[in-house]
# Entry
Amino acid sequence: MAASTGTVNVTASPPKHPTRTLAADAAGIAEAARTLAAGGLVAFPTETVYGLGAIASDARAVARLYAAKERPSFNPLIAHLAGIAAAKRVGILDPVAKRLAEKFWPGPLTLVVRAAPDCPVCDLARAGLDTVAVRVPAHPVALALIAAVGEPVVAPSANRSGRISPTTAGHVLADLRDRIDLVLDGGPTPVGLESTILDCTGDLPRLLRPGSLARETIEKMLAATIAVAGGAQIEAVASVAPGQLASHYATRARLRLDVTDVRPGEALLAFGPKRPRHAERAVKLLDLSPQGDLIEAAANLFAHLRTLDASGAATIAVAPIPAKELGEAIRDRLTRAAAARE
Ligand code: TXA
Ligand code: MG
# Structure
């Protein structure tokens, strides 16, 4: 196991060499596992978004990963595991964490727990914290890859730091081409929005990042309400989930949220059958879900944002999206994308 020294300066220019794209079949997965074992960086699909994988214990590979993403090294990574037994070797699951894991794994739930005494996730990937984020993804390619590697795989979203998370192999290449070794192309990710992150280090779980497992679903299972870490203050959240910086998911265009009236020259991100006034003014219109379905909207969010951003409009007007269920996470990402320009 490689040792690491807390923080690494990642302002150094990232490595440049051709990125290979392979189909996510048995041969592709086997090659991806070999590449990871040799210290390489491999992007692969999960049910939420594409992750950029490195072997969790390999501090050199993790340092390359931070450089490729241009991600600050104080922002820790999620360890991806094949199952609960593997997660228990990485972190200490208290009874509540264990219940959550048994109910929702494999699935889009990340648990922040105390690191196990011999935690194989290197210090760099944990940003020197005594906690660790663990998750078991519900995607056959991700699970097959982790199983083939036989070790925890750390995987942040496979985008450059601060940009929109990738839901296709093409999105990954748009950000990371020639900075990573391999992309396993498994088609569009089914859920499309990152996992929900719960801090399980205290008496009661706290929500660090709303995500594609709705808070209501978790609350129902626990028969308790879940507090949001840091309340509504994004900066406060940033101090507990270091990656939750206000300026995230940056589009080139400005975002205007909860729009009821479209202005000339704007692109429009619509939701549901009801259009904002003057929708005909939109230079380009995409609907997250014509029926107003939040699950469909989550799956379309990042790809639609990319397409509207590429339209060249200076501003993307976003129709109101309800704050319930997956709407909480959708609104969280849109708020961050809007904040990036303010
Ligand atoms: O759906 C997902 O979670 C995707 C797929 C690839 O699994 N991954 C993902 O990773 O979104 P990333 O690195 O983009 O976001 C992980 C978040 C960051 O905000 C980071 O700060 C937080 O998890 N995190 C990781 N370890 C933590 C810890 N020990 N304490 C608090 N927050 C932590
Ligand atoms: Mg990310």
Q: What stands out?
A: Residues 156-157, 165 surround magnesium ion (ligand 2) (CB under 6 Å). Residues 20-236 form a domain with the DHBP synthase fold (CATH 3.90.870.10). The longest strand covers residues 109-115.
